[in-house]
Amino acid sequence: MKNIFKNSVLVLILAIGFESFAQQDPLYTQYYNNFSLINPAYAGSHGLFTATANIRSQWAGEAGSPETQTLSLHGPVGKNVGLGLSILNDKVFVLSETHVYADFSYSIYPSEYSTLAFGLKVGGSFLDVNLLELGIENDNLFSENLNEFNPNIGAGAFYYTNRFYASVSTVNILQTKHYNKSNAVVSSASDEMIFYLSSGYVFDLSDDFKIRPSVMLRVVNGSPLSTDISTSVLWLDKLEFGISHRINESISGLFQLRLTNNLKVGYTYDAITSNLSNYNNGSHEFSIILNIGKNKNTRKPPFYWMKNKNSEEILKMENEN
């Protein structure tokens, strides 16, 4: 009876942890700051190399709550090819999962002002279950940590002009089951394939102000549809502030500031609107975006807003047409 209880405890730990990973894998509120995490076709779209770091702390104030850190780098290699590398670490309770992926994209140009890119993501996840942290002594089931590596792939397409974008992608194509009888545990926890569909547009309010509405749909087998609806206002391409609503989950305030032509920082606070709101103080998200090199590309997504004279000229020509 004692072994059955302990096995049940371990299965419960794994199931809760994997469910938490699945719910946040990986979707920042400011997802457009690190779009290559969910769509490899985005790699190289800025026309120079871009490094991005993100930190997200969910359910602030709760011990063992989910935390996510990411670091990514992507850029163009020639006119048509983009390459990228991303590292994402998730931690919840005693579970930690590190995702390492390489991205490849290839772009074609349907018109003078538009780009259509296709991408492939290849890599995998290192999973660590730190059972020793539980402090359960004199039990072989909890006497050592559990570790495994699971390869995976993703794919996507990304169409954009300087005002409009549309993105479709999928990750976790190789759906992974975690643990089996060889680990003394039978668990149905798994990494499910995730589909993302997103679009947005930039409108001019005046010479100084722009408004950018966008929407993101996230589909996971066995989970409710996740929908993000966001609107932000940009002032002189220096300051961005806005609001985002993840239906039935949270409402967020976001802020970004361009410190120099090549450096941007951002912050988001998510207030939980679901039943979990009584048990946590929301989520915090920080981001730093650094451009490396000289930007010669005038074809950029509308949520990329580092100062570029040629891009402004293209926006005017698009309006005239």
Q: What does this 3D model show about the protein?
A:
The protein has 321 residues and is mainly β. It has one domain (2-320): monomeric porin ompg (Porin). It is built from 2 helices and 17 strands. It has helices at 2-23, 309-320, and strands at 49-57, 67-77, 81-92, 95-111, 114-129, 146-160, 164-171, 176-177, 190-191, 194-201, 203-204, 209-220, 226-235, 239-246, 250-260, 263-272, 283-292. A 14-stranded antiparallel β-barrel has the order 1-2-3-4-5-6-7-10-12-13-14-15-16-17. It has a two-stranded antiparallel ribbon with strand order 8-9. It is globular. It comes from Lutibacter maritimus. This is Type IX secretion system membrane protein, PorP/SprF family. Residues 1-22 form the signal peptide. Keywords: Signal.
Label this structure with key terms.
two-stranded antiparallel ribbon; mainly beta; 2 helices; 17 strands; disordered N terminus; globular; 321 residues; 11% helix; Porin
Question: Secondary-structure blueprint of this entry?
Answer:
Elements: H1 2-23, E1 49-57, E2 67-77, E3 81-92, E4 95-111, E5 114-129, E6 146-160, E7 164-171, E8 176-177, E9 190-191, E10 194-201, E11 203-204, E12 209-220, E13 226-235, E14 239-246, E15 250-260, E16 263-272, E17 283-292, H2 309-320
Antiparallel strand pairs: 1-2, 1-17, 2-3, 3-4, 4-5, 5-6, 6-7, 7-10, 8-9, 10-12, 11-12, 12-13, 13-14, 14-15, 15-16, 16-17
